[in-house]
Amino acid sequence: MKHIVTIAFALLLFASAQSQSYSFTFRLEGVEDSVLYIGRHYRDQLQLVDSAQHTGKGEYRFKGRRSWDRGLYALVNQNKKGKIGDFAIDDSRTFTLTADAKMTPASVKVKGSKVNSQMFTYMSILQAAQKEQRALQERKKDPIQKAAAEAEEKALNERMVAFQQEAMHPQNPNVFFEWVELCDNPDVPDSVKDKPRYFRTHYWDMLFDVDKLNVDKLTSSNNNASGVPSARPATYQPINLSTLLYSPQLFNKMNYFFFGLLYHADADTIILELDRLMDRIGDDTAMQRYVIQFIEPRYFRSTKNIGWDAVWCHIASEYILKGRCPWMRESEIYLARQNYSRISQSIIGAHGQELWMADTNQSPDPDDWVSSHRFPTRYVILWFWDPDCHHCQEQSEELKELYDSLQTAPDRRFEVYAVGYESDVAKWKRYVREHDFRWVNVGGTNVNLDYQEAYNVHGAPTMIILNERRDIIMNKVLPAKSILPFLDSYESRNKK
To answer: Against a cut of 0.85, is the pTM above it?
Structure first.
């Protein structure tokens, strides 16, 4: 558990809904906390929404009048950091749950809540099957028992498949099983050639084609003898997508999609999939907020992957700055605008701003300054470094070795424009002289613009690679040994 916010904040989220009387009693053997809390899952957080005092013998009773959204909630201990266990809230407003101190599924007994009774029974059977599965795996290691264990394992798998199909049958509606099913992954037909692409493009179908899928389930599994679909069961209620906001399944699904499936994708692909997802969400402001607030901070100034800053710039320009995030405060929008104006200048594909700086002669005359763009080489490596930075020293030495090795090459494709990121000009000049850096060395305060703003330089070392048009093609520090392979790869992708 990463964060738990205050009860007061979470209560504001429910203030407009209709309140009802409720009484949730938990009897937990061995728990003696003076108070327990109910937490609501929201992304990777638990928002505390209610509390109950210990009434004796491990009993805690949450009661009063308020609204409850259908969802998966958690029982949280008195220090507000430890989750005892999860339980569900559906339509029942009065129930009693008895369990051990860890709410182990096999120990749970429920009165008054069908959703919880079915959920814990399901989890208990599933855990028992997993235990049986582990035992069979051990038995299979014995050559004498292997055949019998494999037969038992096959029977176990068939039994569990039938059990899960029955549990999730549309005539037995249960919000817990609906969450499980809607957050399942798509099945990829054998006939599909590009299976990864199919999986990615159909990943959200279960969530956003809910009505169609519910009809399809009933049509295929609830036909009468004439083949005509039977009417929906009287107790059937289509899943409300908003209930998924308050379950950990949606967070896990989001996390896997963007930082599992798309972890190595380029920025254009990530942006494409983000826009597709937002289009499917439509006007659902709550879901829009969930997605944007989940994604935006994870791509902001991310150093994990090349090009991720372009994803953040897209979120800022197309969603935040176009008024599509009405939940954001004016101060947050202002900050996003400031960050966008700076970061967008240094993303891959942007044109690099031309620097004019004094070299080691430190002439105050701009006519003597050196341009970052006016070299005959196809590429320019802008190298922002600090002689007091140990990592900069190591990287500079490796870059020097590569640079010097190419001095006699018939086609040295790049020049290094090394900017001394050091206010002590004498120290910088001495370091350059002692280490015999033969590339273009510039530094000091004699410069035409603020290069920290122009190239989003907020620490050393920073590397920017410009192509023949002096557009940015790389804005992460590459090891020296990776520079030539990167340029080869870039040229291969951009032959035309």
So the answer is: no
